[in-house]
Design a protein that fits this description.
Layout (H helix, E strand, L loop, with lengths): L1 E4 L4 H12 L4 E5 L16 E4 L5 H8 L4 E4 L11 H21 L4 E5 L28 H18 L4 E6 L1 E3 L8 H10 L5 E3 L2 E6 H14 L5 E4 L2 E4 H12 L6 E3 L1 H18 L7 H6 L9 H7 L6 H14 L2
Length: about 325
């Protein structure tokens, strides 16, 4: 049996789908409140157990009898009035789940981290898994909580727990129900809510390739190693121009200076702290855009056999899915 957490989300749903497609027996850990819209095609082919990362007893019950664990679940928000809730899920919950899996004798654990936990060269060169990074490099509670969770995984791997870490970049494709911040870029573009753009860059990757990368990490990854799962480094302007080609819409031509975006986001986030209403431009999101998040995925390709997909085809699938689903 293979346990997957976070299957109600974008990447987790595709990981579960890839495992089912490979013929594996799959158990999904879902919160009682989780929507199953992202995995409605899988419900008759998987076992579902209810639990929560903040409930250690439910985690121990979920991993019982499992040979592998894919821990994809995370509290992914760029703004919250209660940051400590994010640490309870992302850090304490991850540590509890990894310990439960170790005690249950799980033979392979794949922990899903994020590209945000990487260090970034000051000269703008693409980063890789070996570039130095510390907690001081993390901007905002989401990145810091994921960094601390990654450190918890690495520390347990050093003690012999069979953990491999994958760090996806910005996945795109179908079934991005929430949507993710990258998916929201596509949604806003389709809805003509993007009159201007920030001068930044992302590494986009087909979510199907990310899911397959998880399976390859379980099969071929070295314990205690991190693997970047990415594909194409793209200027933000290039992403919008690609979406324009796919959709027939016009890409925005106005570029917003980083300082202007930062000032607006700082004010917007401060107001949100008073009103409780989510900011339109979370400051943490703007801080993420300070570096062009360009990466090199050679290590995953060399050691795992990872093969990136077709980013433009994935963007096209995402556009079609968002349009079809309103």
């Amino acid at each position: 049996m293979i346990l997957v957490t976070g299957a109600s989300g974008f990447v987790g749903g595709h990981v579960a789908r890839a495992l089912v497609r490979a013929g594996a027996p799959v158990r999904l850990l879902l919160r009682a409140s989780s929507s199953t819209a992202a995995i409605d095609d899988l419900l008759d082919r998987v076992e579902i157990v209810r639990g929560d990362l903040t409930d250690s007893a439910s985690l121990r019950a979920a991993v019982a009898g499992c040979e592998q664990l894919f821990h994809v679940a995370a509290d992914y928000r760029l703004w919250t009035r209660d940051p400590q809730s994010m640490y309870r899920s992302n850090v304490e919950g991850t540590a509890s789940l990894l310990d439960a899996a170790a005690d249950a004798g799980v033979s392979r654990i794949v922990y899903t981290s994020t590209v945000g936990c990487m260090g970034w060269p000051a000269d703008g060169r693409p980063t890789n898994e070996e570039y130095p990074v510390s907690a001081a490099d993390m901007s905002g509670h989401y990145k810091l909580s994921k960094f601390q969770a990654e450190q918890a995984a690495l520390e347990r791997a050093r003690r012999g727990v069979p953990i491999v870490i994958v760090n996806p970049t910005a996945p795109v494709g179908e079934r991005d129900v929430k949507p993710t911040p990258t998916g929201k870029i596509i949604v806003d573009f389709l809805a003509d809510r993007m009159p201007a753009y920030l001068d930044t860059g992302l590494n986009l990757v087909d979510v199907r390739a990310v899911a397959e990368g998880h399976l390859l990490a379980a099969q071929n990854g070295r314990v205690g190693e991190r693997y970047l799962l990415g594909d194409r480094n793209m200027e933000f302007r290039e992403i919008l121009e690609t979406l324009a080609r796919i959709t027939g819409k016009r890409a925005p031509k106005i570029r917003i200076p980083y300082a202007v975006a930062y000032a607006f986001a700082a004010l917007d986030t401060a107001v949100a702290g008073i009103t409780g209403k989510e900011p339109r431009a979370p400051l943490e999101g703007v801080k993420l855009a300070h570096h062009k998040m360009f990466i090199d995925s050679d290590k995953a390709q060399r050691e795992l056999g990872y093969r990136p997909g077709d980013v433009e085809a994935a963007l096209r699938r995402a556009v079609e899915w968002f349009r079809k689903n309103g």
